[in-house]
DUF2178 domain-containing protein
Amino acid sequence: MSFHEKSAWVMGLIMIAGMAFYFRTVAAMSEGLEQLAPPVLPLVVVYIVVIVVLSIIGHIVIAVSRPSEADDMMDERDKLVAARAGNIAGLVLGIGLISALGGYLINYDGNQLFHAAFGVLMVSQIAEYAARIVYYRAEV
């Protein structure tokens, strides 16, 4: 398994954990309100900081486990995998945001629009990392 594939695994798992943390927190905040909780800047900042810190730690761990691979530049295969995975992520992002905007047109809930759009950003990143893993495994 190459460093870039390991990186995709690490980042995918971190993004899934981050998404679970964010939406569990939003659900807990919404319980007492009888409606969806509004976006809260400190929660978004904590989410971003946690993702960054876990990403750094995760990449240090995989770099230390195989120092010879950690310095590898992206070769043609890695670039092709990244491009194809990016296309998948772009499709997920576009379809998700259009769906979120459609939901807003139906119920005019700005809180729901924010959380849906933020969630779609998370899902598109997860889709990109998942696609990278699939393409690496399929020997593109």
